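Input/output pair, single chain:
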Amino acid sequence: MSGSGAQGPNDNDGTERIAAIVIHDVAPATWPQCEALLGMVDALGAPPVTLLVVPHFHRGVHARESRAFVDALGARVARGDELALHGYYHADDAPPPRSLREFVARRVLTRSEGEFAAIADAEARERLASGIALFAEQRWPLAGFVPPAWQLNDATRRALDGAAHPFAYVPVRAGIHRLPGWQLEPTANLCYSPDSGWRRAMSRALIGREWRRAGTRRLMRLSLHPLDARFAEVVAHWRALIERALTERRPVTKREAMA
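Output:
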């Protein structure tokens, strides 16, 4: 057993230790990179994966416009993977930030990807409804809404509470909310920011810290992004992390984790 402080699949209190492998930003434009990451995961024993689908990623090709993409996702569902709704455009087009803190959160840390960070009520309701409609049209089971960059404002919470579809969970960076009560379960969350050398080095350090903290958490989230697939060293690190996680925890989808 590794030196992470883990007690094996179950902690001393009997709580089962589980891990959710999550692929973010799944869309026709990113599917080649997503397939590369899925191939790496499948080679480690094909554990269940949660795929976060963006219906109209950056307003490019809509998911329903790519038959190959829709068929590929259908095949992943058939093998036991989960699809979750990951925003709608995955782009923050709300009014500009009004404070330095908001600017850092919405422009620096998330590179204007936090679509639901400062959205208005009507727009939040409309985008949620459009995403729900896509899932219903394709007959994809839907339990989770994952706000891009894990940012959501009060308008989004109201829209989720009033949505026609009953969502079961909403993750944020530090944990996952169970709906309808919005109870937050803290989780470990491993994630890369790989697009420069210093960011990759910082990510490795933060992942190491998060892994050590994971010993006190029932659920570990391994949050992969399409950009990760462009860097061999990042993919190799993910492979090692997932392999290690699978020796210490049972792999689950987020839907199963929050059931």
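The mean pLDDT is 90. Residues 9 and 138 are 36 Å apart (CA to CA).
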